[in-house]
Every structure is written in C-alpha cells, then in structure tokens.
Amino acid sequence: MVRAAILPAVGSPLRIAEIDLPEPGPGQVRVRLAAAGVCHSDLSLTNGTMRVPVPAVLGHEGAGTVVSVGEGVTHVAPGDGVVLNWAPSCGACHHCRLGEVWLCASALTGVGAVYARTADGTDLHPGLNVAAFAEETVVAANCVLPAPEGIPLTEAALLGCAVLTGHGAVHHNARVREGESVAVFGVGGVGLAALQSARIAGAGPVVAVDVSPAKEELARAAGATDFVLASETTAKQVRALTGGHGADVAIECVGRAETIRTAWDSTRRGGRTTVVGIGGKEQQVTFHALEIFHFARTLSGCVYGNCDPARDLPVLADHIRAGRLDLAALVSDRITLDGIPAAFEAMLAGKGGRSLVVF
Description:
alpha/beta
C-alpha cells in the first residue's frame, strides 16, 4: 500500500488515502516518486474543465526512481532515475507521422485504465496517465524517460510539464529570435519557464504580466526586464515598453478569455500570440474581421509546448548544467501530499510559482 491523493469525483476535494498498487505487468514500470509538481492542469481536472475518468489519482509532472519493471521493458531498469511523460506518443497516428507528437491521438488512452484500487476495492484511474500524486506509481513503459544526469530528481520533476511547456512555447511555437520583444502573461510555473526560455533565446525586452504584485520578484529572477501589473491599461503599458509597437511575441499562460484578448492586443502588427493556458468552454474570445486583416497577427494554440520530450529533455539538461536554466527558481513552495489542496487554493488566488510535492 502507498499513500496517494485521490480525486473521488469532479468538484470533490482531494483525499489522502492508502491505495493498493499492483506490481508492473508486461510493458509497465513501477516508480518511486522523488517529487511531483502541482500544475494548473491538475486543478482543471478537479473542476471539470478537463475531463478524465474518476475516481483518479492526479499528478502528471514528476520524477523518481524505478522500483521494478515488467516483461519486455529494456530502456530502464530498477534503480534508474526517470522523468514521467504524461503524454507519450504512439508514433503511428496521423499527427505522429507528421512529426507533431504533442498532438498524438493516442496520448491519453491510458487514462481510462484501472491502474490501482483503494483499500476497500474501488477502482482507480491514473489521472493524466502517470498518477504522480502518490508515493509510488505504475505506468506504461513509454511514460518514463531516463532522467538527465547530474540533475537532482526533485528538480527534474519540473521537466515533465512546466519546463517543457514554457520552453516549447518560446522555442517551438512562437520561435522567438534573438532581439525580439516578448510579453509573458501569467507568472506561474509555466510562465516562469517561458521567461527563462525567452532570456535564453536572447529576447529583449522581456515583459512579465500578472495580477499579483508579489510575482514581480519571481519574474525578474527568471529573466523579466519589466513587470506590468495586470489592469485595463495592460496592453498600452506593454506597447510603451516595446517601442510603441507592441511585443513581437505574447505568450498567454492563464487560459482566460480576458487575458488571451489582452495578449493579442499587446502583440505588434505582424507579431505572434501563443496561447498556452487551458480555459473552459465558457471562456469565449471575440475578434472582428477587420482587425484580423489589419493587424496580420498570428494566434496559435500550444499543446505541451509543441515538444517531443525525448528530443527536448537533453537540450534542457544542457541549459541546466550550463547554468542558463534554473529549475529551483520556478519553485515557490515545497510541500507534502497533504499540502496539495492548499496549493490549489494558492493557484486560484494567483499566489506563488510552482508548488512541489517532495516525497
């Protein structure tokens, strides 16, 4: 039995309980978690913005040590450090054949499986495939990647979502070039990773926008040259900081209609607006036909940073080892499993960066 954070039903509070975790079957790996990040996507699962079968163990950003492997698993062995990959690609669907592995049609098929049971025998589903809000988990073999050497597993956990997403939004989706101006909306875990990635790309100025003045210190430590407190004049302030034209690139990490619209308005004519945040269906964003023609901006959605984890983890590891990317700077709170509900409340209140469950 291991302790885990269980979502009994959509809209219900998480409860911490012991679960019966089986040994890995063929093509599976059992992992002892070192750490797991608390992501806004986990909160979106609790309130129904994103849907998975319940009851479920949430958590999709994590790293740990292989305990045991099932038949046929050869790329990792007991004792190996691994990073969890919540969206593994099948390599065979239409999008995978196009090289768009982040859009794999089969990436989330595992969420419907029963992977564990509660003490009273209730079936449990693995959240976003990997069920990282637990002391240990059992996942499909393609959900684990060898952890980069020389990086503590507690910090490597952040590579599983926040850093890949923020890095990819900058480098793969928006394709930020040296000298371009960037505005990042939302200074949470992904936003902080995007700010660091913009700095690594040589962008400037780099403007951070958030509703909380307490985020300014975190933003500047991550690479922001300027900080704007979100208001009705945000777009005007961003334009003033970018030569009056607007940002070459605006990256929205919140998922609210108002923020997406403001990011668009803050983007220069001919610039790029990238939406990373996940909003609900009720978040309706409107544009009129003339402005789309006149401003000639590009608006694009961004799933998992348009990343291929197998390709991008070694790149990120090089940045970390060279001191260009600071994983610890993303973390504002280190908590236990019992602290996850409070971490959700902090996200709702717009407080802090990434909360990290350390086992």
